């Protein structure tokens, strides 16, 4: 019988933010798949769940999802990853695919599942939601994302100045993802709107490597790929 | 010594979607506070955590947060709730205040904390994020909220037709909260935009009482207070 593919949210970084359900399914699954940027590189998702599993007792399946927008490379690598998962599922094993945060919010699981479903249209999949970095950040900053009639938006940062400005103007709270590449631009938009004291940047929230910056600090920092920014107008 | 106030996310409904951290803090806390709409009524948050605690071993503190917009009633009841929590904290007990979903996203914890901080400005608070109904819904529908450059918005439903329309037009995915009161209006906007097959309504997601509706079904149903609608354009 074909195995089940689980998409498991590992949460934002703190291993204790794994759900009881994710823990159970990881315990019950023989094959644990996890994404990494390069072959040989550490996986953030795997790091989060490391405390809960003994890799000697599991079939640890590291899958490479390269950080590129080149469609040829992406198709080739997503196909390779899906093939590796398909092989396990066809042999009857369940596969628990772990991603940081939530599997349905900007995760590698979405790509992998889409490619896999073309190869195995009838495969059974189940998603176990995870705490996203968005909710993790609100908890650590002790700032409500929204209350009452307030609007929240989650938006990947862009180099379009007007789009950044409109996003802040149209919502009570905006979470900009992947701000590292446009750090100077996004800071200048926030200053132009006079919202300096309402902006915070955070990276690897709730993990041991967590960093939280005010806007002043952010402008002098070197943010990494997992850095997001929250602008909560009050 | 004054106790610590914990804001604990119980997740959307399935008790297994509690985090390991929430479980630990509930186990360690003597006082478990939870919101309910009326005195004597069942609390959804409490229902979710019921499997994990023995109420005989705990000090179960039900707090009434009435469903009204009357500012006089709200101030009186929030004050009462904060006083009850303050009394426990001042006696040295930690208080674990449980809310459904995530404590920083449209939760009663936000109100209670704000009122409490006016009485006890130095009280230590810690928030344990929870799986919100938004992420729970995406998992159950098996629909990605967003990927790549897509934008997500979380917006309380309103009776302003143009505002509903603009929200859908400006984002790749919109989650409308509390749609029961404007069910007919929101359906007609979605039909006008030709997005019938991309809209789903969900109530008490992941719980035993979960209901998932297509737009056709939703139009014939009687949605309740906890019903949200996802519109994911593709």
From TrEMBL, chains A, B:
Domain of life (superkingdom): Bacteria
Keyword Transferase attached: yes
Keywords: Cobalamin biosynthesis, Methyltransferase, S-adenosyl-L-methionine, Transferase
Pathway in which the depicted protein is active: Cofactor biosynthesis; adenosylcobalamin biosynthesis
GO BP of this protein: cobalamin biosynthetic process; methylation
Molecular function per GO: precorrin-2 C20-methyltransferase activity
InterPro entries (UniProt xref): 4pyrrol_Mease (IPR000878), 4pyrrol_Methylase_sf (IPR035996), 4pyrrole_Mease_sub1 (IPR014777), 4pyrrole_Mease_sub2 (IPR014776), CobI/CbiL (IPR012382), CobI/CbiL/CobIJ_dom (IPR006364), Uropor_MeTrfase_CS (IPR003043)
Keyword S-adenosyl-L-methionine assigned: yes
SUPFAM superfamilies linked to this entry: Tetrapyrrole methylase (SSF53790)
Domain Tetrapyrrole methylase: 5-216
NCBIfam families per UniProt: cobI_cbiL
PANTHER family for the chain: COBALT-PRECORRIN-2 C(20)-METHYLTRANSFERASE (PTHR43467:SF2)
Protein name: Precorrin-2 C(20)-methyltransferase
Species of origin: Domibacillus iocasae
């Amino acid at each position: 019988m074909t195995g089940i593919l689980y998409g498991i949210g590992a949460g934002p970084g703190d291993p204790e933010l794994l759900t009881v359900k994710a823990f159970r399914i990881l315990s019950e699954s023989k094959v644990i798949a996890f994404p990494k940027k390069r072959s040989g590189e550490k996986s953030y998702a795997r790091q989060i769940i490391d405390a809960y599993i003994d890799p000697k007792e599991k079939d640890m399946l590291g899958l490479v999802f390269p950080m590129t927008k080149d469609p040829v490379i992406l198709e080739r690598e997503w196909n390779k990853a899906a093939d590796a998962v398909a092989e396990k599922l066809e042999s009857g094993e369940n596969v628990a695919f772990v991603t940081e945060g939530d599997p349905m919010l900007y995760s590698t699981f979405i790509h992998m599942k889409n490619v896999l479903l073309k190869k195995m249209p009838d495969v059974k999949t189940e998603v176990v939601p995870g705490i996203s970095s968005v909710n993790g950040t609100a908890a650590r900053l002790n700032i409500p994302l929204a209350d009452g009639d307030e609007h929240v938006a989650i938006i990947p940062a862009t180099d379009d100045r007007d789009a950044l400005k409109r996003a802040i103007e149209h919502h009570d709270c905006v979470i900009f993802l992947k701000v590292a590449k446009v750090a100077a631009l996004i800071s200048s938009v926030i200053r132009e709107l006079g919202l300096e004291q309402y902006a915070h940047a955070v990276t690897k929230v709730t993990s041991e490597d967590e960093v939280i910056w005010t806007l002043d600090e952010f402008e002098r920092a070197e943010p990494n790929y997992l850095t997001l920014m929250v602008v909560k107008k009050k």
